[in-house]
Amino acid sequence: MALAALALTPPAHADTLVDNVNGITLDQDGKVVRFTGLLIGSDGKVRQLLDRKDKRPERPDFKEDGKGRTLIPGLIDAHGHVMGLGFSLMLLDLSDTHSLAEAQAAIRQYAADNPEMPWIIGSGWNQEKWGLGRFPTAADLDAVVADRPVWLERVDGHAGWANSAAMAAAKIGPTTKAPEGGRIEMAGGKPSGVFVDAAVALVDAAKPKPLARDLDRAFLLAQQKLISQGITTIADMGTTIQEWQAYRRAGDKKQLAIRILSYGRDIDNMALIAGSEPTPWLYDDKLRMVGVKLYLDGALGSRGAWMKAPYSDAPGQKGLPLLTPAQLRNKMVRASMDKFQVAIHAIGDAANAEALDAIADLSRDLPGERRWRIEHAQIVDPADIARFAEMKVVASMQPIHQPSDRLMAEARLGPDRLKGAYAWRSMEKAGVRLAFGSDVPVESANPFPGIAAAISRTDAAGQPVGGWHPEETVSRETALDGFTRTAAYAAFAEDRLGTLMPGMRADFVILADDPLLASPDAIRKMTPLETWIGGYRYYKKQGGAGG
Amino acid sequence: MALAALALTPPAHADTLVDNVNGITLDQDGKVVRFTGLLIGSDGKVRQLLDRKDKRPERPDFKEDGKGRTLIPGLIDAHGHVMGLGFSLMLLDLSDTHSLAEAQAAIRQYAADNPEMPWIIGSGWNQEKWGLGRFPTAADLDAVVADRPVWLERVDGHAGWANSAAMAAAKIGPTTKAPEGGRIEMAGGKPSGVFVDAAVALVDAAKPKPLARDLDRAFLLAQQKLISQGITTIADMGTTIQEWQAYRRAGDKKQLAIRILSYGRDIDNMALIAGSEPTPWLYDDKLRMVGVKLYLDGALGSRGAWMKAPYSDAPGQKGLPLLTPAQLRNKMVRASMDKFQVAIHAIGDAANAEALDAIADLSRDLPGERRWRIEHAQIVDPADIARFAEMKVVASMQPIHQPSDRLMAEARLGPDRLKGAYAWRSMEKAGVRLAFGSDVPVESANPFPGIAAAISRTDAAGQPVGGWHPEETVSRETALDGFTRTAAYAAFAEDRLGTLMPGMRADFVILADDPLLASPDAIRKMTPLETWIGGYRYYKKQGGAGG
């Protein structure tokens, strides 16, 4: 990786002055505040924002010249999957290979670099791009790795390529039958090594479960990647006990740099991890279990999202709820009684309506401020939008999904239902608080394309020109707010994270340009020059303009 | 409870002088060191042991007059079950009731005191002691608790008494059949409420699993009990993920007072909790996962201990190993490769021999100092004792088991095999390191009866006079060593715990009398006046002589 190594045990130092910057933050009320110097206390919190004319402390313990560059609050990803990202970074990626020989060389190298991995797992191969004229075979893989299983997903996810050791581990032989909806490629009366569609599961089932050391390694990779992208805090949406233990191990070893706001994967993980109430803030505000993530429906692409009316491209199909009304409410009550926050995954308009119904049913009788979250809130009946605001439900949305999903969403929904699709501005106008995230690793965690999508509703190619349903674009300030102040609010963290006002944790990012002034295309291409968390610089771009 | 409440958030203070004491510790080599003053640094570690003639610091931040009482190192229980103790303390105890009416009053009061408990669980009833002339009934219970299940074990453990709600929860009705070896008491054609022997399981199966808040409460009760008994550190032999999470919650909330040396309950818990190596010392040395606990056989009382020859009172029965040779060795290798310590439960002489065989098989090829432990080492073939010493295997034994088991052990083993039973002195003579514990809650955690048993081999009544196989008694110094210095060594904690030499954690107990001079009977009755951990006083006996 071309990233600067993270300094994981930062040196202890006292007061720090980061001076000569184009400083930007939102204040507690969301108003833009500009400053030229940032004074950080030895506790890692912002002590003072300095204006051009303010007097600087005479001898700070540490002084950093910002050279006029832009400084913004650390970005908060309100919805991601930390370990999912980590594991995706550990996999062998063959998408850049242009021939079988090139792929074989990459596989051999990866296996040599990872001698302790029991299986070599990867993805991205495409025999058409290689000009191979045939599927690759187990023998092609055996030639480079014979000592352990190799299992590689095709670029489209619809086929897998195994070596002989993987087929042996999965007990696949000449008489193995493909399951319905699947196909086993054959050669000379035995499986050739490629498994198509449902047959992929035959080999998948034999894959070893990750060990703790795999989780630890994946976590460090994810953390490094996120920090290099300017993410200083991430809400981990659906933490398992295994994942939580990896976060704690990192914390115990003083290797936890990023801040993780954790939501347990359903009630069992929540209770096993946190017990009968949210955890305290751990490791200097680096880790906390705040609440629980509940899945109410699936996704739009696979038509798992639960819709009020049938899919436009699949008459009769409306998706399905994953929880009955009673199940949903029972889980919500169980979590809420113990003061856990509830975050409900709802993509389809029926799922969103049901989540809102459940919230309405329960809000009256539950004590305290519940700050309900609906995750994705992707396709919402316009008639339901006002209910988010009425019940103060946070809409936790991922702007980058809009350009990624555009053509698929048009096919699934038809023109009539697009009014409530990825409807950030309608939410905002109704008074709904918008928290923004990436859904990493479904999308890249890079928040800058997300901000660009939020303000332009265009994709990386600037398409469609003028933006897709441009009435739903939000301002640069709203986009920044969604990735900072409101993302913190959405996880009960606004007392310490999300802005750079005095008393808040000194989490910030240094950029070459000002995102409140740049074009969407320029924002999309921004990369952090530096990332600071709690007053320590954890990342500095190598050879960057900020050098 | 009559105990002083634990001050769970001790005040921060700096240097402390505990002066005018009859101070005793062992040094690193096990030699007795005496002192009259203990100087503790602000880091909670012993700074200096002061002799009568040594100069005292002029103005310590905090000074305590020991009034000539005895100060010994905090006692370390080398083998206990913290949450088992906690849950036993949470149960309703009816063993002191003398009539059904008295029991009913106690049950009503307990239910009122514990409104959140979904089931009322208890034990200790005895209708004969009550002079009832019949078994009690569900109706007797319904009269005092009807709103939730009540389920009470008879004093001998061979029967259970349920109310109607418990029977309903267990789906027990007029047609329910008792399993083989069990009996359901009937009245008027339906179950009366008492279930005998194997039928107990019918109701047991319906008991709810404990919630996190139950674990948290049980932990605090156990901790309070242990500290009041002078235990400052305990090796938790077989920690589950649920239990570990409770310890961490206590640590996170600064409620962890006692030190816990944790051994995961088999490999799965070990790996889920600690990952790929033992955890760091957490919470100022209050918690660490050191290793794994493996069960190789059962217990002597139930003839589950695995013997070389048949039981004397059950010809043909030799008990059974719970692991095959390959399973045992695989688990040992898996743990050891990741530097976890291995503690093997072995009670019978065959189990001890097999554990030693496995250690011999693996020791050659495993790197580092493994410091194997055998837990209980209760019945050992005298021919095998030298092998403990040769391979530096720690014998982790519980002296109190000897008086408790005496008559049963004589019946099970016959006279010939008693030579290697509870054979502390034979172990010591062979050069084996002895770590002592209680096996709480199988026995009381109180270490003083354990010390008394170790030096006298008599029970609470002083029986048998002169001691049972008195050739196996050890010295007072060896008994203290087993509960302090070697108990620390047994868990790789000798660099910080187990003695009061300078640099060690200031964990100590204040007693009215000197256990190196007192009679076994006097030692058996000793109770701590104060217990200090890390330089803080966590317990002070109310109205005690140390007032």
TrEMBL record, chains A, B:
Does the keyword Hydrolase feature in the UniProt annotation?
yes
Name of one Pfam family that matches: Amidohydro_3
Give every Amidohydrolase domain span.
Answer: 65-535
Known InterPro entries for this protein? Amidohydro_3 (IPR013108), Metal-dep_hydrolase_composite (IPR011059), Metal_Hydrolase (IPR032466), YtcJ-like (IPR033932)
Task: Indicate whether Isomerase appears among the record's keywords.
Answer: no
- Recall the GO molecular function terms of this protein's record: hydrolase activity, acting on carbon-nitrogen (but not peptide) bonds
Signal peptide residues are none
Could you tell me the keywords of this UniProt record?
Hydrolase
By what name is this protein known? Metal-dependent hydrolase
The species this protein was found in: Sphingopyxis lindanitolerans
